[in-house]
Amino acid sequence: MTTTALPHSPARTQAPAGFRPSFPLRLDELHGSLSDPVLGSMTLLNEITGRYPDAVSFAAGRPYENFYDPAQLHACLERFTRHLEDELGRTPAQVRTALFQYGHTKGLLTQLLVRNLAVDEGITAEPDSIVVTTGCQEAMILLLRALRTDDRDVILAPAPTYVGFLGAARLMDMPVLPVREGSGGIDVDDLVTQVRGARAAGLRPRACYVVPDFANPSGLSMSLADRERLLEVAAAEDVLLIEDNPYSLFNAGAERLPTLKSLDRRRGVVYVGSFAKTVFPGARVGYVVADQPVAGVTSGDGPLLADQLAKLKSMLTLNTSTISQAVIGGKLLENACSMASATRREAEVYARNLQAVLDGLRRHFPDPAAGVSWNVPGGGMFAVVTLPFETDDAVLEYSAARFGVLWTPMRHFYAGSGGTHQIRLSFSVLTPEQIDLGLGRLAALVRDRTAR
Amino acid sequence: MTTTALPHSPARTQAPAGFRPSFPLRLDELHGSLSDPVLGSMTLLNEITGRYPDAVSFAAGRPYENFYDPAQLHACLERFTRHLEDELGRTPAQVRTALFQYGHTKGLLTQLLVRNLAVDEGITAEPDSIVVTTGCQEAMILLLRALRTDDRDVILAPAPTYVGFLGAARLMDMPVLPVREGSGGIDVDDLVTQVRGARAAGLRPRACYVVPDFANPSGLSMSLADRERLLEVAAAEDVLLIEDNPYSLFNAGAERLPTLKSLDRRRGVVYVGSFAKTVFPGARVGYVVADQPVAGVTSGDGPLLADQLAKLKSMLTLNTSTISQAVIGGKLLENACSMASATRREAEVYARNLQAVLDGLRRHFPDPAAGVSWNVPGGGMFAVVTLPFETDDAVLEYSAARFGVLWTPMRHFYAGSGGTHQIRLSFSVLTPEQIDLGLGRLAALVRDRTAR
């Protein structure tokens, strides 16, 4: 580097070849993710939704909010404070430190999460293998950051997949290889094909992301046999699995199937959980169970992948909001650490609404020859409808403006590679009456588009 | 890619050349930041500190905590809820949505921050130019991610610099070019040298990070003339400035100098703020003011850098904890949006402790020939002492074990390139008695090491 003296009156020197001034900033000189449709899609959909406040919206993937009560925040906060004082024997000064200071990177809730995972999911976890995160979104970011070393690294995920995962991968410069999805969730045969193909092409498949229960956006779930086969195949093909489980408690009364993590006997599954749907999203509390040993760690670090994720977190958010953790902790304590028990009322709402959607679809689209079909999820918050025309953002806009009904084009969950004639119906925040009204409007849209 | 059929009994196929199995995970196959001393240094220092709970610790960069009171959390939460209801006229359902649901990515506090910035810093900001972040750490991550497009991008920062900035840059794969620091903060001449040298080498200096007031770790502040010159030079050399301001309110009674952002007339400064030191760190609430226009944005996006940062945030943490924001919002409202007014008691503690450190150093190291010197910060939480021997982690361990005093080796803030004989003294959580005791122990260490 040269050591040019500063001129007394600053003036730009002869610019090197290829120099472009920084001002104004230009989008094409910011990180590539910012020009990627994946990051733009949520903004765009929110923007369209925002312009039609009176439309029936099957677009919002938000939890039901009518049971929320601000008084609950105070009650939960107090419950957790009492827990620190009475059950853990902390002094007032220690309670103050826990609630107000920089906290342990892994979080205040790891012990309560061990109990929660045992009670609700049959998962045996050690506190040290858990990192509490700023929503499950941060957990995905941490995993993607940890697993990417260079341009050869890739991650696998079913297509369609949760747009938040695609966006997180884009932020971390990690390409996502799509795996086919069948009617029972991820196509395990295609996973093998993709993994082997990627390795043959010199790539390193670092993990496969999967939502075995009521996936967003497809609503699909894996059978027990498929779960067992996926674990076998992942072991044989040497692929780490990342299991994301935001919806399994909303099973519409059906039998709940075991999570991959509870079936895992070789620490081949990283488990990501969230309180966004079970307590409330604004708290931004999620967590990751990463009990995989990491070879070659230096002294001072713990031996698990969770310890490496905590190191990354210490430079990303330092710790998860202590206040949010205290509120979620209070909710766990109020419910003997069972979110299944805490969310009974919400689960009933979602089950009722799922039934209303499936009944309504049958009623409003009685003719199988009309080219409208849909899947039949066993729970969750989402169903997918296939329509006899392309369902892009322009059609969504038309649907909102002319017929007063909003939905999500499935193509947004394929990163542009599929779902061209499909839409996602999210039914978590609606009443059965609104669902019926909205499906009637959807039927009117279909009549309009197919009459052309 | 090949499309190999799945064998009925899964078994690993012939591995391609260079294939290494994923299990167990290995540190050298995780992201490079995890093997970087920058990320390890905090763990290491915390680990040493943890083993000597009875030592006097000048190591912790934490705010004073004796004024914290759990009842305040409830009061602030209620104050913010009343604000939403009474002052903003929100309905109970809207209040519930604001507190519990996924929130606006830019946050609930942008209007209150506009008032806070005007009252405390003389900064004129528009709400749209602000993004509330999960601590200022997330703000730095967002900026670093936005500004990195490829391997040619670099960022400048004074050496020594805040380890959280170095770590954030490492996480985002952004190299940090060190700029010399003089007794008045960043050396503006050297900044010019580094920028021109980098450009001549084919690199793109995207911004320069600077803490003009009571920097961590050096405790140094820039004069008004240097601030004005830095702005001039940054304009002439076409370098964006990132101003981080966690400490300016702790000015030990001296006149406060204007922030770079308040002097900035060309939107050449991105301003990063934090409530970690003014309210409490556990909340993880910070923010960024990024009013720079971005050319080439597509429809739907806003026109400012803040809008691009919000897009990144929507895939990183979605929104900052609504509960944390409500508590910080309540604190702002309780204090007519002045943190200077809210932190008077803390500011007195830090001023008293700074005086105790400077008095104590003079008392315990009276002989100028002994090779012990220190800087004289005008405020903040940190001072730097130069010792007549190397101050590495082994000496820290020895200091803790033999003399019961902890401090931070300055080399950790240089990413290995300096500070070999310096230590940082952090005095924010101590009493004057502890400071005197600790400095006495430090003097004993110096006698021990120099007698060899």
Summarize this structure briefly.
The structure is a homodimer of 452-residue chains. Chain A is an alpha/beta fold.
Helix/strand layout:
The structure is a homodimer of 452-residue chains.
Chain A: E1 25-26, H1 37-51, E2 56-57, H2 70-87, H3 92-100, H4 110-121, E3 130-133, H5 135-147, E4 153-159, H6 163-171, E5 176-182, E6 185-186, H7 188-200, E7 204-210, H8 224-237, E8 240-244, H9 260-263, E9 269-274, E10 286-289, E11 294-295, H10 305-313, H11 322-334, H12 339-342, H13 344-364, E12 373-374, E13 382-386, H14 393-403, E14 405-406, E15 408-409, E16 422-426, H15 432-450
Parallel strand pairs in A: 2-14, 4-5, 4-7, 7-8, 8-9
Antiparallel strand pairs in A: 3-10, 5-6, 9-10, 12-13, 13-16, 15-16
Helix pairs in contact in A: 2-11, 5-6, 5-10, 7-8, 13-15
What descriptors fit this protein?
Aspartate Aminotransferase, domain 2, disordered N terminus, 452 residues, alpha/beta, globular, four-stranded antiparallel beta sheet, 15 helices, eight-stranded mixed beta sheet, Aspartate Aminotransferase, domain 1, 41% helix, 16 strands, homodimer
